[in-house]
Amino acid sequence: LSAAIEQDRVVLSWQPGADSLLAPPAGMTRPAGLTYNLRVGSLQGRSDIMSPLSLDSGKRLVVAIGNAGSNHSWRIVGLQPGRYYWTVQAIDHSYAGSPFAAEQSFVVP
Asked: What angle do CA 24, 29, 34 make, to 5 degrees?
């Protein structure tokens, strides 16, 4: 995970995921078919900036693609100065979510 900050904007980016839970071809989602779900908050573990609609375990609460679509980066603008925490999870074609990546933080000056 990486964050590039410029004034009140941040671009969050991550590497593509892989669906390794099922043996191919029986239901495995190819990397290009995965979508991604971001959680961004003002405190560790919170989602007050961007909600993933998932539990902390990664279990999805909705049947839908991830809130970041198939992108491997996401721009957030208009953030107030402060520290923010974020993480991402991959969503496969059956809308199952992976565990979240280790939470990272960034500071908006």
From this structure: 160
